[in-house]
Amino acid sequence: MPPPRSGTARLGIDNPIANGYLLAVWSEGCAGVQDVVLAMLAKEPAHGYELRRRLRDALGPLGDTMNAGQIYVTLARLGKAGLVTSERADGLPDRPDRRVYALTPAGQQRVAGWLAEVSWPKPDLTEFHLKLVAAAAARLADPVALVDAQRREVLRRLRDTQLAALDRSVDPVAGLLLEGVVLRLRADLEWLEACERMWADRDRTGRKAQQA
Amino acid sequence: MTGSMALRARGLTKRYGSDNTLVRAVDEVDLDVPAGQTLAVMGPSGCGKSTLLHLLGGLQRPTGGQVWLAGDRIDTLSERALARLRRDRVGFVFQSFHLMDELTAVENVELAALLAGRSPGRARRRAMYLLDRVGLADRAAHLPSALSGGQRQRVAIARALSNEPLVVLADEPTGNLDSAATLEVLRLFAELHSAGQTLVVVTHDARIAAVADRVISMRDGAFADDSRFATTTGNVYDGRR
Q: Distance between alpha carbon B195 and the CA centroid of its chain, in Å?
């Protein structure tokens, strides 16, 4: 199994339909991954491969390129932290995916805390906003052209995600995640439209001022 | 030469008002839509996309420029010829469905064929075939009021296909639909696309992009951006990055 590439889970970068919103959960070392793996064990103890299957089912098309290695790295960390225990299954080779994992009482407590928590991922628009401001101020690039390029990229992601959602074989629960990603991307497109209007108007006003 | 273009426009212009109140709804637009293409024209309200659709379908006359439908110039046609063209060669789909409330689903679908002079038997058979194609064969005898929004729009799409149009023109087809009904309409468009139907959709709903092989962004009556996508084959993991 190839090791995960530096710092980024395959689910984010290698999956053409994944995007920043999902990356947030899966960046290496992020507490979110640990919480997710713990919560997936809450129903009952499970083999590593069973755990992977539960995750893949819940993620639908977004889970297709999920990195198995990262789950076992996470399980090992959770074991060291005393949140899960694992034992070798009878008659099976001793490999991480063949071991049976279970929550410890501390693990159960952590899951309960995670469920009660109301954190919410923040899509970061500030960087792009500042890119436009800086490009316009220094006349480095046409902000409208930057918005256009960004819009093409967001549209491509939206298109790929919606296309995955059109597949009738997608489980309705996993489809809900796709719908959420599409809604977010539509909001991003609306914001980019507002950016476009503002910077196009500025451009026109600027040119008029120069002519006067 | 217009080649195999289903639609072609050169210098297409629609102005309203004059002098200080002059509005260029469509401003010298050039467009080529090859047969079989699904084109989405997107943009904020007021950008001129609906006017463009009306000009392409002969619902409005341009103030300037030319339009060809399958090689035939249409902007110079008489009112009568234009009405016949809209009835026989273009299929329209609207945001608010525009179904006849007092007619059943199948009667709505067969109406265009009857008006075009088809025999009642043939029109009915074609209408039933189309309702089956949009997944509503079992709703044929329902009035529109007994159908959901998504079902009404699918009836409207079946009606648009009634006379085997050269091109289907849709104006905000998902504008009045919830997300489940939008999925149904998108799937139907994808099927029409695979069947080779030429389709032009104007919308601010970016989800349409999922079934389009080309997306044009329109602003202030002109095209600001023109993106093409690899034609969809149902596999989203085909290496496009």
A: 15
pLDDT digits (tens, 9 = 90+) for A19-38: 444 544 454 445 688 999 99
Q: In sequence order, what E strands does chain B have?
A: 5-16, 23-34, 38-42, 64-69, 72-73, 90-94, 167-171, 198-203, 214-219, 222-228
Q: Closest residue of A to B238, CA-based?
A: A16
- Encoding tokens for residue B58? 């002969």
pTM of the entire structure?
Answer: 0.83
In this predicted complex, what is the ipTM? 0.85
A90 and A47 in a common domain: yes
Backbone angles phi, psi at B216, to 5 degrees: -105, 130
Q: Are B225 and A148 within 8 A, CB to CB?
A: yes
User: The domain B1-89+167-225: what is its CATH number?
Assistant: 3.40.50.300
Which chain B residues contact residue A160 at CB under 8 A?
Answer: 236, 240
3-class secondary-structure state, position A126:
helix
Query: Residue A96's domain spans which residues?
Result: 10-116
In a domain, A180, yes or no: yes
- Closest CB to A158 among B206, B225, B240: B206
Torsion angle (degrees, nearest 10) of CA B151, B153, B158, B160: 170
Residue B22's identity, in one-letter code, is L
Residue linked to tokens 């390029």:
A149
Q: In whole angstroms, what separates CA B81 from the centre of its chain?
A: 20
Please check whether residue A5 lies inside any domain of the structure.
Answer: no
Distance from CA of A177 to the nearest CA of B (A): 13
Q: Calculate the average pLDDT of chain A.
A: 82
